[in-house]
Hints:
Layout: H1 2-16, E1 35-37, E2 48-54, E3 62-73, E4 76-85, E5 92-97, E6 101-111, E7 116-120, E8 124-126, E9 131-134, H2 141-146, E10 155-158, E11 161-164, E12 167-169, E13 175-178, E14 185-188, E15 197-199, E16 203-205, E17 208-210, E18 213-214, E19 220-222, E20 227-229, E21 232-234, E22 237-238, E23 257-259, E24 264-266, E25 269-271, E26 274-275, E27 282-286, E28 289-291, E29 294-296, E30 299-300, E31 315-321, E32 324-327, E33 330-332, E34 335-336, E35 343-345, E36 349-352, E37 355-357, E38 360-361, E39 368-370, E40 375-379, E41 382-384, E42 387-388, E43 396-398, E44 401-405, E45 408-410, H3 416-426, E46 427-428, E47 431-432, E48 450-452, E49 457-460
Parallel strand pairs: 9-10, 10-13, 11-14, 12-15, 13-16, 14-17, 15-19, 16-20, 17-21, 18-22, 19-23, 20-24, 21-25, 22-26, 23-27, 24-28, 25-29, 26-30, 27-31, 28-32, 29-33, 31-35, 32-36, 33-37, 34-38, 35-39, 36-40, 37-41, 38-42, 39-43, 40-44, 41-45, 44-46, 45-47
Antiparallel strand pairs: 1-2, 2-5, 3-4, 3-6, 6-7, 6-8, 48-49
Amino acid sequence: MMDRFHLPIIVLIVFISCETPFSTKPSNDEDLFVVSHNYDQSPIFHKTAVQVSWSNITIEDFKEFRIEKAKIVGDDYLWSDLARVPDSLATSFIDTLDDDGTFQYRVRVVDQRDQYRYELSEQFSVPNVSSLYIPDHYFDLETSYYTKFIDNGDSIVFRPGVYPGNHNLLNKNVVITSTHGSIITILSGVNNRQSVIRINKGKLENLGIQNGRGLVGGGVWAGGTALIKNCFIKNNFALEDTDANMQIYPSGHGGGVFITDTAEVVDCKIVRNRARRGGGGVAIDEFGVLRNSIIYANSNLSAPLSEPPYSGGGVFISDHSFNAIVRNCRLTRNQSLGIGGGICVDGPARVENCIFNYNYARVGGGGYGLSEGNTENLINCTFYRNSASHNPNYSIISYGDLDIINCIVSRGALVESVNNKFYSMNSVYSLIQEATNCAGSGNKVGDPLFIDPENSNFTLEPSSPAINSGHPANQYKDSNGSRNDMGAYGGPYGNSWD
């Protein structure tokens, strides 16, 4: 009795809600136009079919049903058209849910004059997906990255394993990481002309990147605002594009990583990569940043007889750089047949608080080389046992205008007639063991007294002549406010080693 009593009131409410009412002919007096769906609001990670249903309704001059869906964001309803159904007997439609969030369906019944009435389903929520796991939810990185379930701030997480493929990850601020780190979670390249990873936004961390053969950045191409952190990048190769206009932008740079725009590479190990041209380990241009990373045993290849030897076995900073930064890095056992076995600088850059040991460059500057036409400062760096075979400037060579400030140059071969003059002209407040005298302001000649250099411990003993002997200006002070210590552990960034 109670249901029958309230029915007229319910019907009245339904008809009041119609924007443009018109005469309907229900199959019986108790039928209402109701919209519903069969999604049970359980978590989903892939495209999922859902049935939208509505009551059987008959109208004069029927034209179609229009099915729409809104994504509700705050107070905004973002409506999209799903379908137009011309079958007057239809009572359902299959939609696909491919995103998380809050939604609502709307079904319009439209006549030939485009008058309509509509009803809404109840609002429903697809539970938020903040992370996807590989291979639990998806097998392919690129597919999971571009699904609508992954939004800015979400993450994609790899389980341990080797995952072949080459991936373009562009324009999403997503964290791509692993559960167990870079040694046992490896992305391995399969395409001979593409980086393993191209990324311009978000973060790539805790992954191994290997066996890439890309034109620019064999392992990783990092552009935009991307951050590459705590990755192990090894055995990649930057090859030459023989069809490219090499005068515009040559390929074959950055065997391990190519860094451009304002991208950063931090806390990475970049090992045994090769490049056809500059930067066997890393190539940098624009405002790229390389920090707190190990650059080990990288090289660039022999050039054809028709070309000069290429430089920067470990790192190459190109003439497209505006203010590249290399800071708190160890560059060890890298090789080049040009200059700068550890690093070659061919554009504006800041190289500071780095350690160069056991690097080799055939033409000169086993540790550091500055190309012609450049003016740079080399600040608070430590050089140990770097070598060259065709030039007496074993540790550092400059064809430009170089100032060596607060550095330690130790255990390179001693060639008095050349090195005394070079370091006297180019260095101040530095300790030069590679010369017998060094006339520049504040320079010293002697043993820096490293704690254990043969095992790569270049911290200074308490009695070292390099302590509190760097440049006295405030801008060079150690992080504790004391006068600058020469070498890689002095100055404002001396305590920034992770």
